[in-house]
Structures are given as structure tokens and as C-alpha cells.
User: Fold these one by one.
Assistant:
Number 1:
Amino acid sequence: MKLDSFLSKYGKKMGYLEMAFFKNIYYEDLGDAGLEFITPEVDIDRNDGTGRKWRIDFVIKTKFAKYAIECDGFNYHASGMVSKDRDNDLHNKRNETIRQGYIYTEITRDQIVQNPSDAIYQLRRLFIADEELFSIFLNRNKGLVSPHEVQEIALNKLNETRSAGKKKGLVVLATGLGKTYLGVFDTRQLKSKKILFIVHVGEVLKDARNSFEEVMPERSKEMGFFTGKEKESGKNIIFATIQTLNREKNLNQFDSEQFDYIILDETHHGAAPSYKPVFEYFNPKFFLGLTATPDRMDNKEILPFYNNNLVFKMDQDEAIKKGYLTGLKYLGFKDNVDYSQIYFNGFKYDISDLNKALMIEKRDRAIIEKFKEMGANKKTIGFCVSIEHADWCAKKFREVGINAISIHSKLDRSEQPIEMRDRDKLIKGFKEGKYQVAFVVDMFNEGVNFPDVECVLLLRPTESATILTQQIGRGLRISPGKKEVLILDFIGNYKTAHNILPALGIGGTGELTKDNERDIYYYDNNGRRVEFENEVVEIFKMMLSKSTKKVRSEVLSKEWMEYADYLEKWTKDNLYWKTTQQNRHFPVQLEGLNIIKNNPSISEEDFKNEVGKIVEKNYPNKTMTAGFRALMLSKISGLVSLRSPLKVTPAFLKIKKICKGNFSNIEEYQEILTSQIEKIFYWNIIYGTFSKYVPSDERVSYKDFHLYPFFFLYEVLLKLIDDYGYKDGELSKLEFNSFLAISKNQEEVNETLEKIINFRNYEEKYELEKLLNKKNNIDPRFFNILAYNKYLIMTRDGVKLNQKHIPELRKRVSKFLSLMNSKKLIMFNEELPEKYLKMLYSEKDILSYHGN
């Protein structure tokens, strides 16, 4: 049917808005070929028992689906614009239309009148799985391979650039837009006789030749390969690998001006040294570079190789929006692998370490469960970290009944089953649907096309936005019945995790929307639906912050900036909890006290010699060279007297009796050690009341400190559990040093907790963490001795409560607070220090000493 005939038949049925939609949107895009599918003003049954009908503005029917199009429609008739009954009626109309099997969509008045191109792209995304319709707007309905709209624009741009005298040019087209076909079309429009097509991996060559043969079958006999196995240098159209072509003896088989046209596919690899001989040797009439991802991992620019001539560009985001690629549904799940324990060489993770971390049953079960839930029967490519990993994944999927294979460069190894050793046969089988899932490493990143792939599994760290863009692109090609590609990504705390966002067209975490009900973040934009689990977004923020040392102060609040300045000054003045600058290892301390016990009158020089021998023999990597001064930790813990001559206390004698002079097993005397370090009062006569480490005219007084640090810490950890729901009450070392270690009074617990919670919930937590680390001058003196406390467990980066001792600790903290509130607790007084020292040297713990 032609337009005149269509308008003669239906023109009077359409109002102004419907006619504008039809002419400026539907017909503009699908032309005469689309007329056989569309009917305006179609009545459908209400199915409400009244016998009445509803009228649909346009119905489009193909052999694949039927579509209901409403112009202005539902959005225009919003609540308040019409009566409540009419509004409900319109809702019922929409719902019944969908129930009758129509795919329903609405095109607004603004789109029709002001932005018809947006409406065209909306319809294309609606028709994306419908072969009869997408064949029209992709120009596939003519029985031959011809340029689609984007390729036509690029071809015109190429003609323009050559008219301007340019002999080189770069075209950037998202994967799936037909880069290879574009190159073929351009050589055809130039009537090029001698053509060289260069790729970086051999797997791409056959597909490239197939594309040329589809467009110019009459020249099939002129085509040949130039690889390690075949060197058909006499052919007019040659498909070569860079690895073969760049060798001097191979280049010399060609004249430098032999080729009219040279195409370098996946030219983002072109900055590698292996490409330089080819660039310098040949002088064609035109040199075309093709790529989907112009950005390289090593940041070397590609454009200079083409004299900075970017001829045309359409990226993945724009191509999806305009309906040239299928829709994208990306789901980012938290991986249960801790990448912080895997060696990273600055560019990538160690493969052997990755294999050990990723090839584990627990992870496989989680991945298979998600795949069965969401990927089901979808044709799938899974990207793995190594050949071993790909083989492992294929085996695990087969074990649960999923028809899976691994395809890689070492399929001929003897440990492979015979039927799995022919790579070309496996690729053919995967294309033809013999296998559902193909696990690969890097093989399918570029070049090889499987249009009907509906799912991509990302089972490896994303090292760059470029690689992720390529891998996602494997599933974006349009295919009959395929509405979108499902991307299942398993994201851990690897250093390059934040590169995922730009690959998805997302500028940063600030562009994500929080769905509190589902506890996810999402991004929805013109055919791209992206969802991340909440923990994944935390990983992005953390890794983005860690990727640079610079603090982005513009994203931090004034209050936190001021607190950081306060922290910097406080810690520079040494106003924080300390133990000593000397030895902080209790077993070594006890060896020294044992020497003094056996020889109370020993000289300091002899003491250093004796303890030095013991330390060298029994405690490698420890030191005890400062003589009696090195016993500061024992002094503040009440294990030895303050003044000379030094005398060990009953607490030490109790420890010695328990462990019989062998102090290496801390667990034997940890109970006593815990009770002694709990008595540390910050500050007391042993510490002094001013800083000894600065000149006398700069000394800072510590008289404002009035607290027992361990009971302060206990209370904070318990409140984190009881009041805030943190299971173990864990504190990071940063939180301890930034909020606890500068606290001065026992009553500051709630104030300190408030800072910790605000820090944890802060939107830019990781930038704040970087700022606090930068401003904090605290050394690890006090934090190190937490490990000797039986109620505490040291983690990789912090401290938490020992679960088995929590009931006991609750009672002790309660008694401590009762003593403090009733003013029965000994709080150090500068004028009456002996009372405190008597308690400190006692073998009783702090509560027993006070009669509790």
C-alpha cells in the first residue's frame, strides 16, 4: 500500500494529533513498508458486560505481536484533569487492552508536536523484538544487505572528509551497529580494487570475510587470508592479522601503495607497538580506523594515528536510545569474594590468586542460583578470568543440568574431552543453539557476533570501562523475539569496580536513585535499566575514593571539614590516648620483669644485656633496647612499680605462677592481663600531666582527661549492638582513632557514638574517611594493646567484642557505671595519687577492688 491509498482509506478517521503522529512519526520512520501493519481508530470489546467498545487510536499488527498506540492518552488524562469516574475509566481501558494481549504504549502531545524524533525512538524500542518492524527501520527488509540509517550518515561523513582532502579517519560505532559492514559499504562506494582488512585476533577474520561476501558476493574469489597459516598475498581483498602482517619479511611482500583502501578493525589496539610498522609502511588512498571503544586501558590516545580526524561517532548509550541496539537490563550483585586479599600488580589481579578465590563451591552456587532465577533458558555468554576458570564454570553448570561449554585457545589439551577440542565446531554449535551457555575469557570481547545472545554473565573483575563496554556489547545486537539483553554482574571490592559506572553511561553514584523498599539503587534511561544492590554502590563509592589521594572537599559538609581541622590540631598536640613509644609487646615486657624479680638490684646496663639475649632467642623481630624506660607499658598496667628501685607487683607474680616463667602463651594469663590494663586511667601520675615530647614552652596539659579507656570502649561497643543493631559492635581502626582516642571524659560515650553513626551513614563516607586519615596524626600506641584484652577480638582493620564474653561484660560495665555514678570509683586526683596507685598495683581487678 502507498501513502495516498492509505490516507484515502483512513485519513478522515484521524484527528489532528493522530495525523501528526502518523505522518511525522510512524510513516517518517517506517515509510510505505510499515503501512500494511497499522490501522487507525480500532474498536475493542470492553468485556464489562455492557456490550460497549473502547477505541484505540492505532493498532499495529505483525505476525509476532499486536500493539496499541494511544496519542496523548493516559498521561494527559491525569487525575485532576478529568473527573474521577473518567480517570478510572481510562485506567480500565488501559488494563483491558493489555489483558487482550496488546503491547500498550502512549505517545504524548509534546512528543508528537515538539519532539517527534523522541517518539520515533520510543516506538523503535517498543518494536525491538519484532522482526517485521525492526527489519524496516534497520533496512533489512529488501532481501539484500544495505546500509541502515546510521551507516548512511557515517558514509556521507566519510565522503565529506575525503572531499576535504583527508586520507585517514576514525569512526566510532557501538558494538552491534555494523562497523565491518560500514567498511565494506565505503570500499564499495569508492569502487576500491585493492583492499586490506586488518584485525588483532584471528577469530574475527572469518566473520569479516563473511561480511564482505554478503555485500559483494561477485568478488568472493578475489578474497584471501594473510595469517600465520595462509599467505594469499596475491588476492585483491586481503584479511590479515596484525601479528603476521607487522613482520618485516611479510610487509615486504606488498608494495607500500598496493592498497587503495585499508581498514583497521578494533583500532583502539592501534597504539600498541605492534601496529607502528603497518602505520608507517602503507600509504593507501584512504585509511579507515573502526572501533566501538576508543579509550584504551593505558590511556594512549588513538586519534593522533588518524591525524585527529574523528569522522563520526555513535556510542552504546545513543544507539540503545535510538533503537539500533536492543534494550539493556543490568543487575549488579554483591560478590562474596574479598579481593583485598588478592595480589594486584597495579594493572590487574594475579590470575592464579583469582582462580583460587573465584573457583569455590559457595560462589558457584550463588551464581547458578541467580542464573536459574533470571537467566533460565536464555542463550548466554559468561566471561571468566582464565581458561581454568572457564572450564570450571562450564563443568559446574553442566553438573546442574545446564548445557554449557568453555571456548578458548587451549581446547586441544589432552585433559579436554575429545568432543570439546574443536573450537570452530564448538563456536558453530553455540551459534546454532546446540549449547545454551558459552564460557570464555577474552575471546568474544570483540569481533565475533551472536545476535541471539540474551544474557551475559560477568564473573570476573571489571578491569576497565572499555572491556566492560565490549562485553556488554556482545548481547546488544537485535534479534527476533529479543526485547533486551540481561547482564548479571557479580561485583566485589576490587580496585577497578568504579569503572563499571562509566561503561553503563552513568556519571557517578549521584546519578543513581535509591529504592528504599527494595534496598537497591537504579538508573533508568531510554532503554537502559540498571540496578545495583545497596552494598555494591558502597563498593563503588569506596573504590572511587581510593582511586585518588586527593580529597574532594567540595562534597564534604562544613561541619566535617571543621571536625577534621579540630582532629588535626588535637592530635598534633598529642592530646589522645597513648601507652608508650617503647616496646608494646607484653611477653617481652614480662621477660624483663622476670629478670628484675630474680635480681632486684640489677644495673640498667646488665638488664639491657640479659633481656636482649632472651628477646633475640625467643622473640624474633622484637626489641627491648631502652633499658628500664622500655618498661613503661608494665608501669601503666600496674605490673611493676613506678619509682626505683623497681619492684614487681602481686599481679606479675600471679602471672608468673600461672605460666611458670614461659610468657609466650598469652592465653594462659590473659585474664590477669585484662584486669590490669582495665585499670589504666588516662592520665595519671605515671604518664605525667603534660606532654614530654615538645619543648617546655609548647607543653600541653592533660589535666582535662578523666576516663578509663577500656570501659569507655566497652560501653561504645555494647551500645553499637544494643542501640544501633550492629551485631559484633565492631569499630574500624579509623573510627577508634578519630572518635574514641581523643575522648576526654567517661560521660562522652553518647557524643562519641553520635559521631560514629553519622560517619557511617554519611553519603560521602569514603571521601570523609580519606580526609580523616589525612588529618589524623595519631600513632598506634594504644590501639595495639587492645589485642591483649580477652573481651576483644582484633579484626583485619579494627576491633570487635568477643561474642562468648558479652554476657559477662555487660554485667561488668553495669557495675562500673554504678560505681562511677555513685562516685565510689577511684578517679585519679593529681593531689592524691597514692590511692589510685594502690588500686593499680593490687592483684584484684577494678570492680573487686571496689567491693563489687
Number 2:
Amino acid sequence: MGKSAGKNEPAPPTQTRIWRYAAVVALCCVAILVGWWFAHDGPTANPTTTKVPTPTKPALPDEREIFSQYAGSDSCQKCHEEAFKLWKSSNHGLAERLIIPALDESAFSPGRVLKHGAQETELSWTNSKPVATSTGLSAKPETLPIARVIGNDPLRQFLVPFPGGRFQTLEASFDWFNVFGHEDRKPGEWGHWTGRGMNWNYMCANCHNTRLQRNYDEPSDSYRTTMAEMSVGCEACHGSLKAHNQWQLTNGKSGIKDPTLHKLTPAQTLDNCGSCHARRTDLTADFAPGDSFNDRYDLTILDHTDTYYADGQVRDEDYEYGSFLSSRMASRGVLCVDCHNPHSAKTLLAGNLLCMRCHSGGYSNAPLIDPPSHTHHVAVNTSALKTNRSLVTSAPTNYPGDGTLCVDCHMPQTVYMQRHWRHDHGFTIPDPLLTKEFGIPNACNRCHQDKTADWALNQCQEWYRSKMERPTRKRAELFARAKNNAPESRTPLLAAAKSEESPYWRAVTFGLLEPWSTRPEVTAALLHGLDDTNALVRASAARSLEAANANPSVHERLQKALDDSVRSVRVAAASSLRATLAPESAAGRDFEHYLTVNADEPAGQLQRGIYLFSRNDLTNALVHFQKAVSWDPYSAAIRRELAVALSALNRPQEALDTLKEACRLAPRDAESHYKLALAYNEVNDLQNTIPELTLVTQLDPGHARAWYNLGLARNSLGQTDAALEALSRAESGEPEDPRIPYARGTILARQQRPKEARIALHRALEIDPSFSDATQLLQLLTE
């Protein structure tokens, strides 16, 4: 090593001793740690050691008893003629219906052919009925009857009856365009019109009808779907009314208060709208007016996925409820019915008149706004901007507005299914700086598409100056970094968890803290979240604690959460404790019911597989993973889970082949390539492991686990410098993982660089003082 030890520095151990110890440790790192990350969510015991109790089928409500309480919308007309008239012609009243020749024949006669991708659909009116000839289940053209219309304005789609009690939604929509645009969805794909992604029973029926009962039977993979009334009737919002009608017939003129009516609270009113106008996971498949949203659904909120932008703007088809909960409007008690007529669903006033009801100084909790000075836009002649938004069939371009409307800037629109322009209900503030930093769209450039984000930012800074430096900007910047698991976001997230007033944003904060849930300060914050007064927050905290539940105090608190008064919290806690969850417990039955009501979709089969896998029932888990793949064969994410199960069942070659297919389907998906690299390692193919890990670091330079394993793999081939460089990149990405500096320490020890090795090992022990291997090696180096 060149020079003798200093006076206060212990002499290093002999080279032979370092080599013997470090070599064993390094080999363990490659064989165990790489494999550990391949199946980190799975069991380690023999697949036959744990017997999973056969779940009892949850009791479903008796639909005959339910439907006997419903009277139908027509029974309301006599006493509520004005409201009935508004509803009858509304999008709710026309949400679903049978074919009406007077309305529908013109769409099919004369016949026509719609080309979409490599396919075509021929539509005609034959024997007084509409039919469609399109690529069917046989992957060949089939002539099929059209039974119903779903939707009204701006989209009318058509339902085709299929075997097993199914109805499928044609991609050819009135007045004949492809709702998928230029996509060429093929038979066998989840999203093809014959696939489960376009299945009416699961995807559409609940929100287009009144008190729907899906009645899916998993063994036969069939439906017996029924509803109290086709379309969104009066009782979809007001609840069953037969008792009300009967009481009114007898006592209507008595002046006595009708005991059958129960006025909804503001929270219940909002939840009622949200039951359909939300992106959510159904927990019970039986919501009724008056129920709590969080007791029936698990709301999709901003998280690590691309579902929402980091400032809360919608990205995917997120509907309105989630965005609205994120807004200041919701936090101030505004309800849907404050802006929308509940019967026509149209806004109560036109243009800025609606917003100025509150923002003209009449409400103390609404800031005073002067539209001309606030917008810095002058009304123009809009005769050239008469593009009907419902007829636009391209991406959202050329907004037909002039920037003087509040909604132009604070409720930007996104187009779905080529024609359905929807306002974002988050009431966000345009910020071109976020566009420059993170690619988050802003309303300025949505309209001024010929201008740059720099131009828009300069305009905003000139007009609003210091007002642009607002808390929402800082929050969006923080969340944008946290969505990418940036280590520097952890501390400010913890601060936000304490200071954030909005329940929605607290829930988001706890969700984004999940990658660090095992760190003591994060664990403490999440445990505090379990005591939050808001169920959305408690559920988010419970989900994020999954990785930390080996901690006895966390496990104990999650066990208590299984008895929470709100079902979404119980289900979240049950999911985090699924490996040890008692199926016969109340929370176990809630979780089983949730799995059952979602068993007709690939995601539901995936969740069932994950549940069984966590309980060491690998054989049955594999069945559900394979079913999920067969139902959605183009999903790389599902194939990754299937590969983990195959690996756990000691079928490494099948796992490898499965991951190769996942990478073929998603060639730029870093996680699929990462799992493929680990699969190569599992079959001792290091020559393919290293190129795959290298590709992962190119696709996702922040993928710390890939850098870590790449360092171990390079070291095993004697590429010491390259190994240390890769481990340094891993440590910069995950600075709180003690295994990374420990791995550096073993390599440095082998290289007879004890001083550097000790620094690395001290760092590992600083992160985790109980790291016994690091302690042992450090003792060897200091003898």
C-alpha cells in the first residue's frame, strides 16, 4: 500500500485476510441482493409452507329487494314538471337508452363505411334495425346488431350484445368517427372494442344507469347485469322514491313533513356527484345516494404515476371530482350545484357572470376580481372562433375563446375521445415556469401555441410580478421532484405534511413520501397521518406504510386501522397487511369483497395474484397473473408481475422469456429492462445482465437500484473502477440505503484501500447502526 500506517491509524489487515472476507461478502451481494430486488415483494419460504384459507364469497345485496323500492323517473313528472323537463333532455336523462328510430335511423341510413387504422366498420339500417359489420371476437368481420345508445352530447356511442351477458362499446361513434383517433387497436388488445377495456358492464354501465347491479360471475366469466332504471334517472341522485310517492298520494296535502325524505348534507351532495364524476376504484359496487364516497370508493389522486400533472392539472381521463377536491373552491365549501343546475347539468349563468357572483366583493372568503385588469385581455370579435368544441376531432388546439373568460385560464380544457372537451375543475393558476422546468402545460400556451413558454413567462411576470411566487408554485415544484423520487424532496415533503391545510394535498404528500416510509422520521409522519380527521389522508398514509410494516409499532397501528370507521381506510390498511391479514376478520371480508367486485378486469386479477403471492400461495397466484396477462396481453407491467411469480416458483427460464416479451412490448420502459437484467442474472448470464442494466441507466439515469446492481455485476468481472463509479451513481440516487456504501466498502477493502473502505463503512453504519456485516468488516479493517 506504499506507506506505513500513521501513529493514530491502526495497521491494515493482511491482504489475504481482506481478500478472503471481502470476496465472500461481494459474492453474497451479487447472488442475494440482486435477487432480492427481483422478488422483493414476494415470499422467501417454500411455496407449500403456507395454506391460504379459501375465501367465502361475500354476500351481495338482494337486487329484488333493492329495486322494489324504486319508482322510476316517470313517477316524478306530475309533481315536479319543470325539473323533469330539464332532466329529460339532459345528458343525464339521455345517458343510456334503447334505439329510437326517429333519432337514430339517420345515422345508419344510407349505409356507410368508417375506416380506422387497418380496420373498417360498415354501418347500416337493416330490417328496421341498426347493424354494424366490424372485426369481432373471431378477429374477422362479423355483422352484429346494435342494441343501445350510450351518451348524448358530444358523444353518442353504440352498444353491441356479446356472449356471457356482455355489451361492448363500438369505437365507431355517431356521427361516425373513431373515438381512438389514429390509433389502430387490434383484436386481442384490452382496448380494442371487443376487449375488456370497452366492456360496458364494467367500464360504463354503473355511471350511465340507476342503481346498477353488475352481477359478475367469475367461474363462468359472465354477467347478469341489471339496474333499477336505464339511464341516470331521478333516483340515481335522490335515492329510491317509491315510499315517497306512496306517502304523497295519501298525505300530500296534509301539510305534514314527509318522513320518507332525507335531505342530503353538503358533503353527501358532493359525494353523490363524485360517485360517477371521479376516477376511482370501486370497493363495493353498490353506491347509493347518501353514502360516503370514501366508504364506497378509493379515489385516484396525484401520485408517482402520470395520472395528474404535479400542479394538480388532469393528464389522463380523471373526470372532475378529484381535481375539484384539490381546489380552493372545494376547501371553501363550494358544491357542484352552486355552479350547475342539478337537473339540466348546465351552468347556472353564462361566462364570467357565474364566477363574479362570488368574486365581485359579495363574499368575504372570495378574492375580489376585476376581469379586465386581472386578465390583461380585451374581448375580441369571436366570429372567427366559432369552432364548435363538440365537433373538433383533433387534439385540443385553437381554443375558441379570447382569454377574457375566467374558465379560459383557470379551467383549461382537455379533449377526450376526440370530441369531449372537459374543463379542469382544479381551478389552477397558469404558470409557464412550470412548463419550462417540468413540462407541465399552462393555459397561456394552450391558447397561444405559436408562442414559447419563455414568452408566456415574461408576460406573466410583467403583469403579476411577485404574485407569481405563490405557494402553489412551490408545491408543484416539490411534487414534480417527489414524483421522480428525488432524495432532496423528502425533507420538504415532511414539512408540507405538517403545514398543508387541504386534506387532498395532505393525502398527496403522504402518498409521495412512500419511497422513504422505512426512515424513522417518515414513519413517524405517516403514523401521525393515520390519526388525521380526513379519511382520504388516513387511507393514503396506510398505503404508504406497507414497506414499513415489519416495524412492530407500524404493524400495530395498521392493525388498528383495520377497524377504521371508513371502508377505504380499512381496505388500504388491509392491503398493506395482506401477508398476515385474517380473511375472516371484518377488514379481511372488506378486502375480499373489493377483490371480488373487481375480478372481471385484468387489474383485479393482478391484485388477487399479488394478494395470494404475498401469502405464499404461489401456485394460485400464478393462475391469476396468467389470467391477467391473457386478458391484457399487451401490458408490460402485468408481465413483470407474472415473471416475479415464475421466478419464485423456480421457473427462471419462463420468467426470462416473459420479461423479454415485456421489453418487446415496452422497449423504453426502464423497469421492464431492469427486471430482465435480474432475470439474466438469475440464470447466471452475466454477459447479458450488464448490457441490460446499462440500458436501464440510459433510459432512467436516476434508477439507483440499476446503478447499484450494475456496480456489483461489474465488480464480479473485475471492472473495479467502473463498479465504484456505478455505486457512486447509485448512492447519489439513494443516499439513505446503507447497502450501497457497504458494497463500496467491500470493493475498496479488496483493493487494499482501507482508509476509503472505512469511510464507506462508517457511512453505512451512520445510516443503519444495526448493519452487522458492515460492523464486522469495519472491525477487520481496524485490527
Number 3:
Amino acid sequence: MADRARWERLLGDGIGEGGGGGRPARPPGRVSSAVLSTAWYRFRATFRQRRGGYLAIVLLLGLVGGVALGAVAGARRTQSSYPVYLASTHPSDLQVFDAFLNPALGAAETRGYRPSTPRRIAALRYVESESTVVGFDANIDQLQGVHLRVGPGAKPPSIEGPTGTEYFDRDAVTLVSGRLPDLADPHEAVLNAQAEQELGLHVGSVLTVTLNSDAELLSGANNPPPAATLRVRLVGLVVFPQSVVTDDYDALGGAEVLITPAATRRIDLCCATYSYSALVVAGGHEAAVESELARVIPGKLLAAVGFERAAPVVGLADRAIEPESIALAVFGGLAALAALVIVGQVIGRQRRIEGNDLDTMRALGAGPATMLAEATMGSMAAVVAGALLAAVVAFLCSPLFPLGPVRPVYPYMFGWDWTVLGLGFLVFVVVLLAVALLLAVRLAPERVRRRAQASERPSAVGRAVASSGLSAPAMTGVRFALESVGDREAVPVRSAILGASLAILVIVSTVTFGASLNSLISRPPLYGWNWNYALFSGFAGDEDLPAHLAEGFLAHDPYVTAASGAYFSSASIDGQRIQVIGMNPGAAVQPPVSSGTDLRASNEIVLGVSDMAALGTHLGATLVVQTGRGHAARLVVAGTATMPAIMGPGMGYGGIIDFSLIPPAIRNAQGNTIPGPQVFFVRTKGGDSAGALRSLAAVSEEINNSDSDRPADGATAVLRPEVIVNSSSIETIPTVLGAGLGGGAVVALGITLIASVRRRRRDLAIMRTLGLSGRQLATVVAWQATTAVAIGTVVGVPLGILVGRLLWDVFANGIHAIPAPTVPALTVTVIAVGSLVLANVVAALPGRIAARTPAGLLLRAE
């Protein structure tokens, strides 16, 4: 009685906000204070009986919303993972080769390392620091009679060593296992982790490294005696910053042993093959330094190898990682939508349960402001708590990210993304506040009475169902699914059908996307590998295959149906340097074109889509292409192609030109006695087969037996680009997405059915009185669930297929693959049938509740 008296006093003091009922109008400040006081009092007084509903809001929003925010934050963390990692390694701004043991690049290039050149580079204006790395042409034998496993087309591990602390404080390697070497110990070294299993090495392996002198290498003598020998023990496995994200082609030459400065200084003057300088440049002056380097480094060497900055490497990594981050962001957005739908349904259910007191409050003089405050205070407090919990859950999920190749070396465990978590919190609160306000207005007493009066007239749905000839339980279940009564006990049938449609749409679009991804992975022509095998020259294509000799052997091979040679180089177009493949115009085997035609004439060029966009050009345009110092040609853009993982930074980058436009010195950079292509693209009968691979291995051996340089290195099957290499991370996302959304749909359907049973207790009790058994009442609920899900299936399946195909087209075009969406008909059918089966499973518990409806107890009030 005391609580009721206090409630009436509060109502009398301020809820008649408009001065109705003969009361004088209150000042606005006093009205607001009274409204809040009354709403707060009612919230405290009814909290115990409503806390279950509030707890459901907090937990559902916290968990489902937390997964959503965690996925979106994880997408951002994944996309930015490589720049964040790279910054932790203290990267240099510019790298340039300053010596290369190859007379074809100029008379001066008879030494692989000249100490005077790095000193001159360090003295250049704007160069703040310079670090030198020396590479060696060395042979490695593992002790105890175990030799390295180097596969066809792959390079043996390269041997590099800094003269200072490069790779240990600047461009620092990341330790994976073991320890870093003692820089003063010439007998310790580390190996990059990517090559550990491929080569059969491990921490503790002892290597014997034999080296030839520069003079011996230039003499052309076969197997000269070693000029120096090193014996080193591998003390650790590391990851080099530039090789974190690689395609299969880069992996062929990715094995590297890093020796200490103490070891480097013992052999750099006698046995170096090349050296390069890593520079830290005063802010924004890289172009000026590049210009001055042209006066220090021989022109042919600079034309052949150019400069290397961090930006292209970062861009390559970002493009390779982007599909994973996009998939994560889509998952997060759909999970957030599911959270909003599910929590919105719970708020609606809570609002309807609380609505039984609205008529009493109105009768006691409650005005619109008080009714609105009372309707939203509890739900919004739960929403705010749930949104805060979602942010915490998302933070706790952050160690799961980033996905992809950077994850093993990412320097930070936890991450708080203020942008995602802050905006996500606001979106949840604002949207669900709008839902609560809308429901409060919709369930106002006047509106409820009007809908109740309107519902007294038979609906078109009711008339159609009544004339359908269905059994009584089936007819009633269909009406329950499609028809909402007009009083406050109304069941949210529209939201139930919308939720089922949305869930099925998302699941079908997800499996369509996943099937298209699997199709892309399993069909190499879609990502530029328009042949079966690549027959490489030595050191993964660094040397030359003798053109006529190789062509003759391939032409007589019974498995080969077509083969075309290709050269690797680079070209400058409007100041932009791109990687190019040199081929014969009209070659039988070329990368697949996505528009226009392939290379058919010597005055044509075929470009990757991204390079075409970056150049601002179009099909039919004429470009001035410079392939070496003094070598320029005017070429017409004939088409765009999906570039293979055989060179260049990705499927949309690079170009194809006539090989004769590449200067001979660049085509034959290793100085082979019989020059020719670096690789042959080979198509074989019946596709990939063990017989074809053995036959090509025999061709490789025949070439080596016929050429003293032994330039052939064997044939390899498909080499995947970075995006495809990282597809294992992407493949799991559709599965998780489908499972998550399916789980959310099941929860939402279960909540709706339980709410329906509770709100239809009067109808169920009447049917029980009229003779329906408990089993028939359970059948009513099953028909209700089946009807809602059947409509969702009819709507969601075709829309899901359409959305999945559209998403795949956008995705494939974004990574410059050839779009070929795949619809998994069997899987979609299983989803449609499984949805109906699952609906009946979910309906079991609400059906059990309905079957136990006590007719006498509920009808006593009548």
C-alpha cells in the first residue's frame, strides 16, 4: 500500500503534464523531474520481476554484438597489420644495388662488392644513414651426409651478410624460434622460417658453405675449387620483413641464410656476388637521393635493378591481405545486423510484457512523457550495459587478429580500436533506443485499442486459410504465423518472417561466395595461370634457357600441346615503373585477357587492370614505354590481362610486351653462353599429370646435357598469387559467418515462438477446451514455425543467390581475378530443406509448453 500511495503521489505531482484532469499545468522543470522520478521509482519497484528480460538483452547484445564489433575491429587490424609490423622493424626508406658481378651490365661490374661505393652513397645529401648487405654465390652442404632438398624451379638458399647491423636494428628480422646470433661470432647464422621445412634444416643444423672468388666466377670454369669455406651453425629461425607476404613464385627463391657481420667481413672482398645499400633518407627527399645515386652507380646496373622503396612492398601486402579484411568486415556487419534484430525482438517482447500496466498508469493520470520514460528506461539501461559488454568482448577477441600471413610476427597481442568500439557502441544505443521508442509509441493504449477494434474484422489471411482445407492444427498454426491480433498480446509475426528471410539470405549468399572462392582456388586460369607447367631456367628463372634448343625438345615431347617462352624485366611508362613479361607476339600460350586482345603485334602492350588505371590510360591508347636506357617504343594498349604469379606485385599489375623490346643485356643478365627465355609456359595433354611432369623433367635434363651452362631447373605446377596463398584464412570466414547467423536465427525464432505461446495462451486454452489434444497444440506451434521459415526460404534463397553472385563479382574484380561465380545447387537445396527441419526442431520446446496449457486456469478469468 505504501508503494501504491507513493506512486499515486508521484503521478499526482507531475504526470498530468498537460494540466489535464483539472490539475494546473506544472512548470517544465518540475514536470521533467517528476517524470524521471516516477520512471525511476517504477524501474526499481519492478526490476526484480523484469530482470530476466533485462539480463537477456545485456547478454545477447554483449555476446552477439561483441562478436560483431570484434570482427570489424579485427578487419581493421588485419588490413593495417603489415604497416604496423613493418614500423616495428625500423625500416629503411630506400634500397639500391650498388654492385653486381656481371660484366654484361658494364665493364665496371667485375666485382660483387666495392667498399668505396657505400661510402660515397653515405656521403650523399639527405642520406642520414647507410647499411650495406653483401650477397654471395655459395654452395651449401649440411654436415652428417644430409643434403638440402631443393625442388624443381626453386633456388638453393642465398647467403647474405651485413657489414654492420642491418637486419638486426634496421629492417630487423623477427625471431620465430631459437635466438639471434652473436654478431661478433663468424660461426653463427640464422635461416628464414619459410624455408625451414622445404630445405630440411632446423635450429642446430651445421652448414658448410663453400665460396668461389670473383675471378673464378668470371672465368666460366666448371666447378672451380673453393676460394673460401665457412662453417656455421643455425641458432635461430627468423622472418625477413620483405618476405612476410609472398606468392608461390617468390617462395621459390625465398630461402636465405643470414650470416653475421664478423663472417661477412672475412669473405666480402673475395667472394661477393652483389651488394646493396639500405638508406634512411631525410623526410620527403627520396627522389633527390635517387637522382644523385645515378652519379654513383653504373647506369646499366641502375637500369637493370632500379630502386626499391617500402611503399610498393606495403602496397603488395595490403592488396594480398585485403580480401581477408573485407570478408571479416562483411561478417561483422551481418553479425551486427543480427544482434540488432535479435535484441530488438527481445525489447519488443519485454515491452509487451510490461505493457499490462499502461492502462492503469493512464487511468491514474500518467501523461505521454511519463509513459514514454517508463517504456524506455529499463530497456535502455540494459542496452547501454549490453553495448559496454560488447566493447569488452570485442577487446578480448583482439588477440585472435590479425588473420593472414602477418599474424605470426605481429608485435602486439591486444588492441583497443576506439573508432570501431566507439561508433559501434553509439550505433547499438541509438538504433535500439529508436526501436524502444517506436515500440513505446506503437503500444500506447490508444493505438492498441484502435488495432484491437480493427482486428475484430476477419482478415484476408484468415479467410484464405479457413478455405484451404487444412486440418485444424495446421490452419491455426498458419494463421498464428501470418496474422497478428490487434491487442497488446500481438505476436511480432512480421519480424519473425523478416528474421528468417534475412538469415537464409545471408547463409545462401555466404555459401555462394564460399563456393565461388573454392572455384577460384581450384581453377588456375581464373588467376592468370593459363597453362599447366612452367619450365624454369636456373635459380627460379634468373638464368636463360637456350631458346632454339628448348623449343625443339618441347616440340617433340608427346605430352606438350603448346609452349611459349617468356622473359622477365621491367619498363618505365610516364615515370611509373612496372614489371613486364616479354613474349613473342601471337604466342600460343599467354596470360588470360579480361578485355581487348592478347599480344599480337610488336607495337602492342597488354596491361594489368590496376596499372592501366594508375596510368590513366585505356584500350587503344598509345604509350611511350622505356625498357632500358635509351630504349623506348610507342606501344598501343591492346588489352588487359590477369597477370600470373610469375613476376610483379599481383594479378592486376604488370604488362606483356614483345620480348625484342627488352635490351639483350637485360634479357641475359647472368651472361649465359646461349641466351633465351627465363621460362617456358607449357600446356600438356590431359592437364596436370604425373606423366607430363616426368616428361618435362626429362626435357630439362636433355637441355642441361646439351648446354655447358646447365641452365634448366625443372618444371613446376601452378604458382599461386598472394591472395590465393592466403585463401585458407578467407575460406573459414564463410563457414563461421553461416554458423553464426544460423545460430542467431535459431535464437530469434525460438524467442518468437516462446513469446507466441505465452501471448496466445487464451487462444490455446480455448482450443484445449474445444477438444484439441496436447499433441495437436504442439502441432500448431510446429506449423507456425514451418510457415515462417518456408516464407523466409522462398524469399531468402533467390535473393541470397543474387547477393552472393554480386558480392563475388565485386570481390573478384577487386583482386583482378576473372569473375566466375558458382552457385552450389546441392548445398542451397540442403539449406532450404534443413531450414524447415530445423524450424520444427526449434518448435519442440515451445510446442511442449503449448501442449501443457492449463485450460481451466486461463479461462477462469473469462
